[in-house]
Specification:
Helix content is about 35%, strand content about 15%. It contains 14 helices and ten strands. It has helices at about 10-15, 20-25, 60-70, 105-110, 130-135, 150-155, 160-180, 200-210, 230-245, 255-260, 310-315, 315-320, 335-340, 345-355, and strands at about 35-40, 85-90, 115-120, 140-145, 185-195, 215-220, 250-255, 275-280, 285, 300.
Length: about 375
């Protein structure tokens, strides 16, 4: 089967489509990021009981953030223009990006600069006007569903059962609008898995097919990223792929998350992958990665306080932080990339680039 893109894969086939940036990375000479992740708002319309933000912030502070927290000042976005990333992910830490008051302008900025963009959202705030902007500007939208019925959704997202009806109506409208516009934007469902096989996985696949979306993306629930996922679970997801994938529907599971659980040991002492990826928080801070976007000690500058962000990406402070990975969680966002980069030298790059550039490069080659 011809995989339409590789945005959920992990390995040489992804990294070495960016050979020049890999050379800079190995030499510890920063380039513009392959991937920029923007978290534009702290506000959220869900109250997920297992949200990672509950482990990062005191409850009173967290409630203040999700109900009326900070949001990115979009007037400073022009500072990215001198050193544009290759790809953009718009997501959240405490917040949902659709609640960002300038989300339309944010999407249009990267669309006008011809930068492939994916947005990750719970989908509850989706309106017809936002749907039009997303289908025009985004390469991909992933909607976090994580349930197969109203009762489960109310539990996983901390909402009323009525929200389930609203969510499904939004997905249905988005799929229909995509057909009407003949949009190339991929619409997908995000589904968190436990460490073991459950019958809900197949039900989630069948539900996604019925909704007419382009894919479902399985990811291990954060709590389980520090312990082994059963081989039976991965085998079962592969079975579902064999059973239900088609030319118009894909089942993805994040290799970088599932596979890294079998190798949590860090045999590297520098986070080289941070040269290829960075995060901008709602306050304009630049963070090494999403796993540390709440940690001021991981910030190496602020977008509002610089002439352009190139000077921050190339700063000595960032180089110092990249060499201090003691606070990084096991199986972090960049772990598998660092394993690869730590075992590659500059003499390997040309051969690996030649080998993997033979495969078809999709429109989404983020890390």
């Amino acid at each position: 089967m011809n995989n339409i893109n590789n945005h959920m894969t992990i390995g040489y086939e992804k990294l070495f489509k960016h050979a020049e940036k890999i050379r800079c990375c190995i030499a510890e000479q920063p380039s513009s990021p392959i991937t920029l992740e923007i978290q534009p708002t702290e506000c959220c319309n869900c109250n997920c009981p297992h949200c990672i933000s509950r482990t990062r912030y005191p409850d009173k502070e967290r409630q203040h953030m999700i109900q009326g927290g900070k949001e990115l000042d979009i007037s400073y976005l022009h500072k990215l223009e001198s050193f544009l990333p290759d790809n953009v992910i718009i997501s959240g830490d405490t917040g949902d990006p659709l609640l960002y008051s300038q989300i339309d302008k944010l999407l249009l900025f990267f669309y006008e600069h011809n930068i492939p963009t994916i947005i990750i959202t719970n989908g509850l705030a989706l309106t017809s006007s936002l749907a039009n902007i997303i289908l025009k500007c985004c390469y991909n939208i992933r909607i976090s569903v994580d349930a197969t019925c109203a009762e489960d959704y109310a539990i996983t997202h901390g909402t009323s059962k009525a929200s389930w009806k609203k969510l499904n109506s939004n997905i249905e409208s988005l799929v229909q609008l995509k057909k009407e516009q003949n949009s190339k934007c991929k619409i997908g469902i995000g589904y968190l898995t436990s460490s073991e096989v459950t019958c809900n996985l197949e039900n989630a696949v069948l539900q996604a097919i019925e909704q007419g979306v382009d894919y479902i993306d399985f990811r291990p629930f954060q709590t389980y990223r520090c312990k082994t996922v059963s081989s039976e679970l991965i085998d079962y997801i592969k079975l579902l792929k064999e059973r239900y994938e088609s030319d118009s529907f894909y089942i993805w599971y994040s290799h970088q998350k599932y596979n890294s659980l079998s190798n949590l040991k860090r045999e590297y002492d520098v986070c080289l992958a941070s040269y290829l990826y960075t995060v901008i928080t709602p306050s304009g801070n630049l963070s090494l990665c999403c796993n540390r976007s709440n940690d001021p000690l991981s910030y190496y500058g602020n977008l509002y306080e610089c002439d352009n962000w190139k000077e921050l990406l190339q700063s000595q402070l960032k180089k110092q932080l990249i060499r201090n990975i003691s606070k990084c969680p096991p199986s972090c966002r960049l772990h598998m990339y660092n394993i690869i980069l730590s075992n590659v030298n500059k003499n390997d790059v040309d051969n690996l680039a030649s080998k993997y550039n033979k495969s078809t490069r999709g429109s989404w080659d983020a890390i």
